[in-house]
Write a structure and sequence with these properties.
Layout lengths: L3 E8 L2 E8 L2 E7 L8 H14 L15 H11 L7 E2 H8 L3 H9 L12 E2 L13 H11 L5
Parallel strand pairs: 4-5
Antiparallel strand pairs: 1-2, 2-3
Helix pairs in contact: 2-3, 2-4, 3-4
């Protein structure tokens, strides 16, 4: 049996909890859920705190990308630079999938912020966001990165 470990981080949008199974980060959940932690979780927490504090950061740790279309969409989202956005259609075209399927994969992203689904928008609309606060949280994350100036 693989032991799941957790570590919570306080951020400007409320607490988030990182989850680790084996040697990889498997999900980020909204809210505090303190656990035993690990060296890997501490490293990831430091990188996330740097992101929250607008300090230089790079998410460079092992994570679960998933499989198939979800993995392709997650890798495409991870390639969107800090402070920029891409549309569902742009990602769909780059991976050869329908935009609706990209939207569903974005909504199923288990690692928001780390795999930045908040950076994906519709062509003429903002798009959804599955975190508490919905699109308000998405807008706050984009403002935090300087990608949304409203």
């Amino acid at each position: 049996m693989i032991c799941a470990l957790r570590h919570s981080v306080e951020g400007p949008f409320g607490p988030v909890t990182l989850h680790q199974e084996g040697g990889v980060i498997t999900k980020l959940t909204w809210g505090a859920d303190p656990g035993d932690g690990s060296a890997l979780l501490s490293r990831v927490a430091e990188q996330l705190e740097n992101y929250f504090q607008n300090r230089p950061y790079r998410f460079d740790f092992p994570l679960d990308w998933g499989t198939g279309l979800n993995a392709a969409v997650r890798r495409a989202m991870a390639a969107i630079p800090h402070g920029q956005t891409a549309t569902y259609g742009q990602i769909a075209k780059s991976i050869g999938a329908p935009a609706q399927a990209v939207g569903q994969a974005c909504g199923a992203n288990p690692l928001p912020i780390v795999i930045p689904c908040h950076r994906v928008t519709g062509a003429g609309w903002f798009g959804g966001f599955s975190a508490p606060g919905g699109v308000e949280t998405k807008a706050a994350l984009l403002r935090h990165e300087g990608a949304l100036l409203l």
